[in-house]
Design brief:
11% strand, mainly alpha, two-stranded parallel sheet
């Protein structure tokens, strides 16, 4: 098993919004048990851009969402 997984933007968003029906349970299990999970800086940009264009609804300002989502990856 890899020691770090870098999440795709969609997978990261679905995990943060608890939308687990979008991918297999085995992916979730792997992500939850790997020692380290990361995201690319471009994923942060993609989330911000999608929100700005109205294609993505967030429950708070995008900067706050990104900060909280990145903090959760650290824990």
């Amino acid at each position: 098993m890899p020691e770090i997984i870098v999440l795709d933007t969609h997978i990261w968003f679905w995990i943060m919004t608890l939308d687990f029906q979008k991918f297999p349970d085995t992916w979730r299990e792997t992500i939850e048990t790997v020692p380290q999970v990361g995201v690319s800086a471009i994923s942060c940009y993609e989330i911000a851009l999608a929100h700005q264009k109205g294609r993505l609804k967030l429950p708070c300002p995008v900067s706050e969402w990104l900060e909280e989502a990145l903090d959760l990856l650290q824990n």
